[in-house]
Amino acid sequence: MQVPLYQAKAEFFRMLGHPVRIRVLELLQNGPVPVRELLNEIEVEPSNLSQQLAVLRRSGIVISIRDGATVSYALAGGDVAELLRAARRILTELLAGQNELLEELRHAETSVRTGPPAM
């Protein structure tokens, strides 16, 4: 039986739902990165990074590249980088909306404290 598309999408987003995985994908946007550099940038235990890289590799969105003793990772395609850029745009819009709401709340709070204008 085939998995419905909406369920496959949910599983895909669930796979992305870990901060270390997102950070790895961000770091890989500009090309392959050796594991040692990923460790320096992300500052997690090597075993934790290894687990998260394995999840990304099994999903097929990253590939590993071995050059002698050095193992690097790269995005399997450019669509993931585009997805991360889209997420950044969406978050920027959401946060801008929250800032506007915060300013309105602050203004309303100031108005309540000072009361109505004197006549």
Topology (elements, then pairings):
Layout: H1 5-16, H2 19-27, E1 33-34, H3 35-42, H4 46-59, E2 62-67, E3 70-75, H5 79-114
Antiparallel strand pairs: 1-3, 2-3
Strand order of the largest sheet: 1-3-2
Shape annotation: elongated
Low-confidence stretches: none
Instruction: Name the helix and strand elements from N-terminus to C-terminus, one letter apiece.
Output: HHEHHEEH
Class per helix and strand makeup:
mainly alpha
The percent range for helix content is: 55-70%
Q: Give the oligomer, counting copies of the same chain as homo and different chains as hetero.
A: single chain
**Mean pLDDT score:** 90
Straight-line N-to-C gap: 75 Å
Please report the number of helical segments: 5
Q: Radius of gyration over alpha carbons?
A: 22 Å
Strand percentage: 5-15%
